[in-house]
Each structure stands twice: as structure tokens, then as C-alpha cells.
Amino acid sequence: AMAIGFQLLFVLLWLGRKDGPAAMAWLIAVGIVWVATRANALLFIGVLACVEAALERFARPALLRTGLLLACAIAAYKIIVTLTGNHGQLVLFNFVFVDKPDGLAFPNPGFDPVGYVRAIVYGLFEAATQFPEFFLCIGALGWIVVENGRPLLQGHPPKDRDALIVATAMLLAIGGHFLLYPAAWERFFVGY
Fold first, then answer.
1. Which of 66, 83, 143, 144 lies at a C-alpha separation of 20 to 30 Å from 102?
2. Helix or strand or coil: residue 143?
3. Contacts (Cβ under 8 Å, ≥6 apart) of 66
4. What is the mean pLDDT of the chain?
């Protein structure tokens, strides 16, 4: 619940413009706390920063702003991982979905491509049969991206720049998160 609260605050601060050092400091602080409460927040922050920089055509102010935000989020993640020990994302992925060893006492840090493909197929099947809202969410976000991004194809500005950036970031973060953890469980995606 804390992570969702920090995520909402982060998005509200991001939507409220990041111009000025005080606004940027608040955005970075909330981003760090959000990453501290939920490590996969780093995925959304990274995708959001890349999408915003790309939409701004990699202009220097956008690159500085998004680069600083992303660097601080990565630093927070690295500090937390260093302090908490060796429970990396690949180890947890294998523990939860692929190998299912007896507890975290014996994690398998290796990667099994066959097990990964099996987990992806099972995750898609599970999403289709038990979590249809997963596909509804992806469809709705895709529609928002297409509708707001269509003017870009003709060289015009998007209908709603912020909606385009947030919806694109959410869509890519959901896809990236599903590729890392192929399950459509609500607890993985409630934050997006």
C-alpha cells in the first residue's frame, strides 16, 4: 500500500511539471522512496524517463532531467540490493517461476531458457483464463497511446503529451515486467 501511495505521488509530481530545482528534488526524493518500497518501480521510472526523453527528441534539458532521475533511482536500487544481500531479480525469478527450489536457502542463479518459455506460455494462459483484466488494461493503454500518438505520424504534436508519455511508459513497463515475471497476478500490476 505504501508503494502505491508513493507511485501515485510520483506520477502526480511528474505531471505537475519538473521545471525548477525544488520540483525536481521532490520528484527524485519520492522516486527513491518508491524504489525503496518496491524494487520494480525502477522499471517504470526507467521506461518513463526514456519515453519522455525520446518524445522530447533527446533535447539537452530533457536528457539532464530524466538522466538525473534515472541515475538516482538506479543508485537507490543498487544501495538496497547491496545492503540486503544476494536476492537478485534473476534468482527470485527462478525461485518463483522456473525451478521452484525448497526456499530461498538454495536458489538457482542459473537461467533455464526452456523453463522461461514454459513460464511465459503458462503466464499468458493464466492471464487469458483467470485475469482478463490484464488484457483489458493492455488494450486500453494501447488505445490511449494510438489515439494520442497518431498526430506524431503527421509531424504534429500529440493530443495530450503527458497522457501519451504515461500510457506508453505504463504499457512498456507492464510488458517488461511480464517478461521478467511472467504472471498476470494483480499484485504485480496494481501499481501500473
1. 83
2. helix
3. 48, 49, 50, 52, 53
4. 79
Local structure of 131: helix, strand or coil: coil
Q: b or e along 29-64 (b: 16 or more beta carbons within 10 Å of the residue's beta carbon)?
A: ebbbbbbbbbbbbbbbbbbbbebbbebbeeeeebee
Pair 192, 170: CB distance under 8 Å: yes
Residue 97 gets which letter from DSSP? I
What is the amino acid identity at position 126?
A: E
Most confident of 11-15, 68-72, 124-128, 187-191: 68-72
Q: Above 70 in pLDDT, residue 79?
A: yes
182: left (phi over 0), alpha (psi -120 to 50) or beta: beta
By the 8 A CB rule, do 148 and 160 touch? yes
Q: Is 24 within 8 Å of 65 (Cβ atoms)?
A: yes
Q: What is the average pLDDT across 13-20?
A: 77
pLDDT > 50? residue 23: yes
Please give the full DSSP string across 44-80, using - where no structure is assigned: HHHHHHHHHHHHTTT-HHHHHHHHHHHHHHHHHHHHH
What is the rounded end-to-end Cα distance, in angstroms, of the chain?
13
